[in-house]
Amino acid sequence: MEQKIPLHAQLRELIREKIADGEYAYGQPIPSERELAATYGLNRMTVRNAIEALVQEGVLKKVQGKGTFVTQSKIGSNLYKLQGFSKMLLSKGIQPSTKLLYTGRRRAGLKYAAIFNVDEEAELYRIIRLRLGNDEPFTLEDTLVPYDLVPQIDQYDFGVHSLYDLFAANGVDLDMAYETLTLVKVRNPEAKLLQVPTDSVVFLHECKSYDRDSRVVEFTKSYTNGQKSYFVADRH
Questions:
Q1: What DSSP letter does each residue of 79-139 carry, written as one string?
Q2: Cα(5)–Cα(26) distance, rounded to whole angstroms?
Q3: Residue 178's beta-bridge partner residues?
Q4: Residue 131's Cα: distance from chain center in Å?
């Protein structure tokens, strides 16, 4: 380990990386202070300081007589990779689930007519879902798709079905996406649904997905708790 950065800070970041990479899995104990000290050649006080810092952040939790457990696994989302939320969480060893909040039809209107390149009176289908990992809220998604894109789309339960799986089953071949990522403050009801204090800063991720015919087939706004997620831009 480098000596310019305090050893406890180096170990803290190393533990954080192992959590993000899934080596220390959500809900599982990390190695004991004694094991970490022996592994990295550190004294117990240095290890304890690193762990205490992560406990204070809410990343770890000490359970008397049982050990120190991962309670906040940050999930990485690759902005260059088109994939559904569930598949992304499963790839990180997190159990996904969805709470369906709303589905229904709406007219495109001026704003969404421009996004989808359709008439203002064209019908869109709206899906609002709270996405959870191990029963904790990660992301609030507000999605719009052309109503006639998937036959009988209003017959599907999007608390169960994956939109991307339905695209694939109906010959909608996703090709690329235009995405933006900003930081915004949220108030209720978004804050309450994400279980964060009102005026908390979260990620706002907007994604416009195209098929191989260059049609816009999806527009999604996602509010994501930054304490549980991070984003990367990796083309590989």
A1: TT----HHHHHHHTT--EEEEEEEEEEEE-HHHHHHHHT--TT-EEEEEEEEEEETTEEEE
A2: 27
A3: 208
A4: 8
Sorted by sequence, the CB contacts under 8 Å of residue 169 that are 6+ apart come out as none
CA-based nearest residue to 110, from 101, 98, 121, 102: 121
User: In Å, how far are 80, 81, 85, 181 from 232, measured between CA atoms?
Assistant: 8, 10, 15, 11
Which among 121, 168, 119, 115 has a CA at the least distance from the CA of 145?
115
Q: 60 is written with which tokens? A: 């770890």
- Contacts of residue 68, Cβ cutoff 8 Å, sequence gap at least 6: 29, 30, 32, 51, 55, 60, 61, 62
Gap between the Cα atoms of 223 and 204, Å rounded? 5
Which pLDDT tens digits describe the chain residue by residue (236 residues)?
444 678 888 898 898 888 877 788 777 889 999 999 999 999 999 999 999 988 877 778 888 888 898 875 544 444 434 445 556 566 556 677 889 999 999 999 999 999 999 999 999 999 999 988 778 888 899 999 999 999 999 988 888 788 888 888 888 888 888 888 888 899 999 999 998 899 888 888 899 999 999 999 999 999 988 665 544 444 44
Q: How does DSSP classify residue 34?
A: H
**Encoded amino acid at 37, one letter:** A
Q: How far apart are CA 223 and CA 208, in angstroms?
A: 15
